[in-house]
């Protein structure tokens, strides 16, 4: 088809024009029949959001994707371009990509009237048919709809009543395209009204100038529910015009969340060959976001983006790699203590409520990591709290008594593998506990689970964990820690 260069050739080929909504519908039907996925790479929406979007497309609806940040709303919209024809014809030189069979601009109509079948045709690829605009309070009617261009009027010696003096905005330029407005409630009400007028009445009103312009656009809006109360609202006529409202959501399981992280995380090839991350640590990274979404310190209305776990996992790998570089180790195994490296990835991606602000972002991040460690512990080892009311002895008794005798263990941030293993082996009963409950674990996994037990016992308040100078972690008896003192620059303070 791309070999066709004139309107006459296009007619002879049997080409039939169709609206963009019909185009999307027809191609979706073909995908559904062939069972070819359209929204490839969007995980966790297979039984919820994707069917809703497909129903909206089949109904030829404009739609709004409503959900918290980091829920793949924009990605869903961008992937809709796969449902467009690979190329469509338009009148060459038309700034609105006029359909040769049904031009809507004065330029397009005049070309067809004067040249007839000799009207030159150009072709537009589907990737060029996606236009996106972030709604901000400073967006004007001129940005979206257009404005009179006095320079054009003067240059062409035209009256302001002539259609040719208009400089079209983003919406008219989206004719025959998918047009996405992100964060719709941020758009001022008067701008929304102007947008609605174009949708409902198919006309443009600029500085008293009015013209009919039957635009053919697939509108996709996105919004955060928080925006309805905090930053603005969607005017009722426009909301009524959006036929389908589709609710998005966060991953509903750690497994889905983990697949998303593994798919999106940017891990260098050299990191993949050198750094080994156990499934336990992958699960802990995902659990952090689940803990954040229900934390009393985090604003649940703002949401916790999936980007948190992606960035956290990248930082975990980099923290492990850094230790390996420092110790010149060709292969390095991620540790529980390497989770300290994910703190910067958490602090910038959570909105705190008043209580969280009082704690501080870094402390809240550490609390979330600790809660993730505790939440998953019972999947690998017995719950320490369950033995408080039981007559049978706790499997952690030997470990706790060793710390109670005044002993302690220190895990240095950049210790070598041998130093790390030696420190863990100093704790009697720890190795035997892991061997009992993690049968089949290799030597590296055993060390990881030994470290995990110490971290978890600290979260269950069975022992204490303190961070010393240089990032060294010290585990010791809980009671002795409560009455110990450390010196800082201003004197002494109680831990």
Helix run count: 23
Stated plainly, the CATH topology of the largest domain is called Rossmann fold
Q: What helical percentage do the residues reach?
A: 40-55%
Sheet-strand content, in percent, reads: 15-25%
- Mean pLDDT across the residues is 89
**Largest sheet composition:** 5 strands, parallel
Unreliable stretches (pLDDT < 50, length at least 5) are: 485-495
Count structural domains: 3
DSSP E strands, number:
18
Rounded to the nearest angstrom, the distance between the terminal CA atoms is 76 Å
Q: Regarding CATH, which class of the largest domain?
A: Alpha Beta
| Overall morphology | elongated
What is this entry, summarized?
The protein is an alpha/beta fold.
Word description of this protein:
The chain has three domains: 7-247, Rossmann fold, CATH 3.40.50; 250-377, Helicase, Ruva Protein, domain 3 (Orthogonal Bundle); 383-495. Helix content is 43%, strand content 15%. It contains 23 helices and 18 strands. The strands form seven sheets. It has a five-stranded parallel β-sheet. Strands 14-16-15 form a three-stranded antiparallel β-sheet. A two-stranded antiparallel ribbon has the order 2-3. A hairpin with a 5-residue loop joins strand 15 (463-467) and strand 16 (473-477). Helix 12 packs across helix 14 (279-293) and helix 21 crosses helix 22. 34% of the residues are buried.
């Amino acid at each position: 088809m791309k070999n066709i260069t004139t309107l006459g050739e296009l007619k002879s080929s049997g080409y039939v024009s169709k609206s963009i909504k019909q185009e999307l519908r027809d191609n979706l039907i073909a995908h559904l029949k062939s069972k070819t996925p359209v929204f490839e790479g969007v995980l966790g929406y297979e039984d919820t959001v994707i069917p809703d979007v497909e129903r909206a497309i089949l109904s030829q609806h404009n739609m709004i994707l409503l959900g918290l940040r980091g829920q793949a709303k924009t990605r869903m919209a961008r992937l809709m371009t796969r449902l467009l024809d690979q190329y469509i014809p338009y009148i060459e030189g038309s700034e609105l990509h006029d359909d040769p069979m049904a031009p809507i601009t004065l330029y397009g109509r005049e070309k067809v009237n004067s040249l007839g079948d000799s009207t030159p045709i150009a072709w537009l690829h589907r990737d060029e048919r996606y236009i996106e605009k972030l709604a901000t309070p400073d967006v004007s009617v001129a940005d979206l709809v257009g404005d009179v261009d006095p320079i054009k009027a003067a240059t062409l010696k035209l009256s302001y009543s002539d259609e040719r003096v208009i400089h079209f905005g983003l919406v008219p330029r989206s004719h025959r395209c998918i047009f996405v407005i992100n964060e719709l409630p941020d758009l001022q009400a008067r701008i929304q009204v102007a947008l609605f007028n174009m949708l409902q009445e198919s006309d443009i009103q600029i500085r008293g100038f009015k013209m009919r312009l039957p635009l053919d656009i697939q509108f996709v809006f996105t919004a955060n529910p928080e925006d309805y109360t905090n930053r603005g609202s969607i005017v009722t006529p426009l909301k009524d015009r959006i036929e389908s409202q589709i609710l998005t959501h966060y991953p509903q399981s750690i497994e889905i969340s983990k697949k998303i992280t593994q798919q999106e995380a940017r891990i260098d090839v050299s990191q993949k060959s050198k750094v080994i991350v156990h499934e336990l640590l992958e699960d802990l990274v995902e659990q952090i976001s689940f803990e954040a979404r229900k934390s009393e310190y985090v604003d649940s209305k703002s949401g916790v983006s999936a980007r948190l776990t992606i960035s956290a996992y990248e930082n975990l790998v980099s923290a492990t790699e850094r230790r390996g570089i420092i110790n010149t180790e060709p292969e390095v195994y991620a540790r529980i203590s390497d989770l300290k490296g994910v703190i910067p990835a958490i602090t910038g991606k959570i909105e705190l409520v008043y209580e969280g602000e009082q704690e501080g972002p870094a402390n809240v991040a550490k609390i979330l990591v600790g809660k993730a460690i505790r939440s998953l512990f019972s999947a690998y080892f017995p719950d320490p709290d369950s033995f408080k009311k039981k007559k049978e002895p706790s499997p952690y008794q030997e470990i706790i008594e060793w710390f109670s005798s005044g002993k302690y263990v220190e895990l240095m941030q950049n210790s070598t593998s041998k130093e790390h293993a030696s420190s863990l082996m100093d704790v009697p009963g720890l190795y035997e506990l892991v061997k009992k409950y993690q049968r089949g674990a290799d030597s590296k996994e055993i060390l990881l689970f030994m470290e995990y037990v110490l971290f978890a016992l600290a979260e269950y308040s069975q022992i204490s964990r303190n961070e010393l100078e240089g990032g060294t972690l010290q585990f010791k008896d809980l009671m002795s820690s409560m009455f110990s003192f450390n010196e800082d620059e201003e004197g002494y303070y109680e831990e």
